[in-house]
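Summary of Year 1 activities. Much of the first year was spent building the evaluation harness for sequence design. The harness presents a backbone, in tokenized form, and records the residue chosen at every position. We chose the following record to illustrate the format because it has been used consistently in internal testing since the harness was completed.
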């Protein structure tokens, strides 16, 4: 008779990884050391039924808001806004980003919890992160790209109008504040750029990754230092040919003075302190073109402080009523009020919101 071989069972690594992620999430700071306020955290979800591309846009926005967001937030059709508010309080969530779709347009609402205000943006155009990566010859997405929150840069928001001031304050408060003197350069991996065009009243929303390259060092040398691999020297007569053939300092784009900075600390193996490095931005996505169409004093309700279609100062109407008053203009889907909902479910991604 054959003897049964005692098979070796590998330990379950997934559970260990989950425990490590939970421990890292528990060690995340909850208070901003600069302002003394709570670090802004967000929920990104939808109201109403979304088509496939908008669902992917929702996931892209969740990744953009990492690490202080619920990446795996699960919602049900019967969940209403009060359900999200009930969950947001104990988790310290400060902002809602709500996507919705009508027959003719898509909308993004950005709201401060628990009492507002709420800014409603019409999405004129958008591109997914996957589309942008597919259009690039060498897409870049390091594994630690979303480990730290993105920096926020606002351009063109110089007017003193109330809508622009509210928009500026809203987007500035969504991301944690940084101190230029004490911030670690290695944590500055991403940047969100919002550019306002006063002529068209449109906001260009862009998301980039930040890349540093030492000035005067060839691409082949950089790859040699970063990859830790022995180069192929079979077709070369001398080691010096490896350097000279690489075109030492030939990358003119990286050597522009306007795009170079002097580092105060080491970043990686190539960029050393007190040396010049070129700063390059590579788009990660998503990309959106937004237009502010409504500002409400409360959380998706209350007095209308600004409206692109109607009169400001009126009490907040339901989205269906606003759509009738606009003579066919686009509006938001109405919230599910008056129905008893359930708390939205979440998996690991929600545990970082403790």
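For this record, the design step produced the sequence shown next.
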């Amino acid at each position: 008779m054959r003897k049964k071989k005692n098979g070796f069972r590998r330990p379950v690594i997934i559970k260990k990884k989950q425990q490590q992620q939970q421990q890292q999430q528990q060690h995340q700071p909850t208070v901003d050391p600069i302002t003394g306020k709570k670090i802004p955290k967000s929920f990104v979800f939808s109201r109403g039924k979304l088509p496939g591309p908008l669902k992917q846009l929702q996931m892209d926005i969740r990744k953009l808001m990492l690490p202080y967001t619920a990446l795996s937030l699960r919602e049900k059709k019967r969940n209403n806004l009060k359900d999200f508010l009930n969950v947001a309080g104990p988790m310290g969530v400060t902002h809602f980003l709500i996507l919705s779709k009508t027959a003719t347009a898509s909308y993004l609402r950005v709201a401060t919890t628990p009492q507002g205000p709420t800014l409603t943006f019409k999405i004129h155009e958008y591109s997914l992160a996957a589309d942008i990566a597919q259009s690039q010859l060498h897409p870049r997405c390091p594994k630690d790209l979303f480990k730290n929150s993105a920096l926020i840069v606002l351009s063109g928001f110089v007017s003193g109008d109330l809508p622009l001031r509210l928009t500026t304050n809203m987007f500035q408060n969504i991301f944690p504040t940084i101190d230029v003197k004490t911030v670690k350069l290695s944590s500055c991996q991403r940047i969100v750029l919002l550019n306002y065009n006063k002529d068209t009243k449109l906001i260009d929303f862009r998301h980039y990754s930040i890349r540093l390259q030492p000035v005067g060092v060839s691409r082949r040398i950089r790859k040699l230092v970063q990859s830790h691999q022995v180069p192929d020297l079979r077709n070369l007569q001398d080691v010096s040919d490896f350097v000279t053939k690489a075109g030492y300092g030939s990358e003119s784009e990286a050597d522009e003075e306007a795009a170079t900075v002097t580092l105060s600390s080491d970043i990686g193996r190539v960029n050393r302190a007190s040396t010049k490095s070129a700063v390059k931005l590579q788009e990660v996505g998503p990309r959106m073109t937004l237009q502010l169409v409504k500002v409400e004093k409360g959380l998706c309700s209350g007095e209308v402080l600004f409206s692109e279609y109607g009169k400001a100062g009126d009490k907040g109407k339901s989205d269906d009523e606003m759509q009738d008053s606009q003579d066919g203009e686009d509006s938001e889907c109405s919230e599910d009020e008056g129905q008893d909902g359930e708390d939205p479910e979440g998996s690991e991604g929600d545990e970082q919101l403790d």
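The mean pLDDT is 76. Quantitative recovery figures across the full test set are reported in Table 2.
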